Fold these 3 entries.
Entry 1:
Amino acid sequence: MAKNTTKDLTVGNPMKLILGFSLPLLMGFLFQQFYSVVDTMIVGQILGKEALAGVGSTGAINFMVIGFCMGVCNGFAIPISQRFGAKDYKSMRKFVTHSIILCTIFAVVMTFFVSIYCRQILIVMNTPENILDYAYEYIFIIFVGIPVIYMYNLLSGIIRALGDSKHPVIFLVIASFVNIGLDLFFILVLKMGIAGAALATVISQLVSGICCLVFIVRKLEILRLSKIDWEIDSSYFRILFNMGVPMGLQYSITAIGSIVIQIAINGQGSDAVAAVTAAGKVGMFMCCPFDAMGSTMATYGGQNVGAKRLDHLEDGLKACVKLGIVYAIAAFVFLCFAGPTLVCLFVKSSETEVIRLAAYYLRWNSAFYIPLALVNIVRFLIQGMGYSMFAILAGVCEMIGRCIAAMVLTPLLGFTGICLASPVAWILADLFLIPAYIIVRNKLKKLFNESSIHESLNINRS
């Protein structure tokens, strides 16, 4: 049973492996964005511009907190994929159980604190008064659902670490339809307003998490846990902590820059907030292939480092970069023509100023999709190789880029400065990540060569 639901990414044509693994992931990200887009469409078209801006104004704080949850879970999956690549299944199961324990602790602590302070954070972020209540009502419910977010991201990360990128997609499809149905029921039938959209999101994530759990228990015999797997070993906690927390902090540090730029956006008024919200939804949908490439390279890097296949890893990097460049160019051309039409999915056609600003924002961002492709591919590959601390430093670069845009470019260029925030962040991150990859690659080559010499000496002595 396990043989049919796991995949070895250490042998075979890298391009075929990457495409085969990333396409199901892409479908998963698309469906994830699909039900997020439906949320936004329903809120914008039915509840109005202020409600849409309210949801949008929570984007930065949402990314800071939820991004930390996702980053931690992705980091925990790395040693699992490395042990799977090394065929060390006993240690792999120990990493799984210790990941579950750590995620439970993180979920309880984070839910308690962020739920208490989220309104104060929104006020500090200069959220416009006319959308503050919408923002608080939405984000409070999302934060109460943090344990569910940990559950889904950890379990789906474990499944992907074993080379199975298909089943998490199936579960996301199910969750997407649940989310859409609950959106319509809560908002149109029960008249719950913006709270209905948030509650629908949390419940749909719970459904996908339960599906992952049932699949692991029933299908993945390789993850059949015994009592000995639950015995506490501090060394496993230390490795997981060193992998997961830096990746979580990478998201959170990046989000600090997003919070700074969100404050600048809020200062431009509710039209600018609504425009960036609508454009952001279109942009996230278009960037799903980059997300899929990144997640693919994390698992690909983890398994190949575990198998000591650096040559195979480098071939995979070259193949993925080619895919990223081709898609980036195609996406830019598409958004230049279709951007205004896509924005109209989220705001009424009468909101001409919002549509104009959103289309302008999309053109600037999509012009720099090649640097974004490199950020995702190289950063996640480095993380998969086991050097997650570099993720924090890359996040610092992105934070600095967004702060420069908020504090320097926006006062000089107005809304154009806001449009340049992400491009500047991506370029600065690439200037750090590319040399970082070279350093990591050389370190591993030296480590593996020394290991091979020691193994040869031991064989000769015996």
Note: Residues 456-462 have pLDDT under 50 and may be disordered.
Entry 2:
Amino acid sequence: MSMTVNSIFRYPIKGLSAELLAEVTLAAGQSIPHDRRFAIAHATTNIDLEKPEWLPKTRFFMLMRDEKLAQLQTRFDEHSGFLAIERFGQLLFNARITDTQGRKSFEAFFAEFLMDCPGGPPRLVEAPGHTFSDAKQKPNSTTYKYISLVNLATIRDVERVARVPVDPNRFRANIYFEGASAWNEQKWVGMELRLGKARLRVVSLTTRCPATAVNPTTAERDLDIPRILREEFGHNYMGVYAEVAEEGIVKKNDLLLPL
């Protein structure tokens, strides 16, 4: 059975909801366009927006600690800069977060929404060309901007031992794929892949943190994924990070081929 792309996602704001894409154009050395373009930083987080550097996720509001963020469904329009936020089907926020007034409105909304969370008043941060990714630069990699891939067969194997459904969105991947045997992707580090018209280089396995315990539908911590991985499979990995080596368009149902 051929490996194929099942779905493509981006996460414009670190820690907030996924956006399903019909297709994406990948550029060499870059992440999916607008993926983790923004982040909600703690008041005490120091970021040089002119020369941004990678920072650990604990400097930002994120699902690992702030699970109530999963209550929100967001949609970002990169052309207009407008962000819409819904909660339980009700529109709560709609403003252009790429201008000063819109950012202030965004920060005011989250100051109220996150008032019971630690970290001080939130700040919306953006640094042109920077990606607020959890992944640091990997050995032998030329960038820290990666595409994350998750094997749906591996998730089904986790479901087998957990004995409950496991929503793939817990893993916040960019690409979910079908057609490989469970855990086969763990052999890919150092390999190159053809993904649609693009070429990728797999740089590392993806370590899973307590953010995966948060149910993306209910916003409750209801399944300890890191514990299940450690106790049942002897490791704490789910999926891989890859860097884009050659640009190209990727669509749903495109082939994923080892090179």
Note: DSSP finds three helices and 15 strands in the chain.
Entry 3:
Amino acid sequence: MYGYKIINGRAVIDEQEAGIIVSIFNGYISGLSMKAAAEKAGVSMQHSTVNRILMQDIYIGTDYYPAIISRETFAKANGRRLYRANLHGCKKRYTAPPIHKEFNLATAETHHNDPAEQAEYIYSLIEVKT
């Protein structure tokens, strides 16, 4: 996930990418378009990529992912995103994505030497509480 690194099976903030995430959210809240917010943050991203970033509620923090932005920032950016989507007459009316607050992480019983395989295994152990 953009903004994080997996170290020893745990998600930790990638400071450089997290700075970009914060800048994208703040730029978009300030009135920039999605693409312009990314460019101001110093990265070139398509509208759809920035849209996916703005919709990722993991950036407000979970049991697994540390918070990069506040709930208020997330809510402001997504309120603006939904308003603009509906204002511009998108055929599909958008609603806010659910904010999952609780997760279960099963105990890891296997260790893989390959960090990517270990991360994939650990991710597979995460379940959203409903």
Note: Residues 71-87 form the longest helix (17 residues).
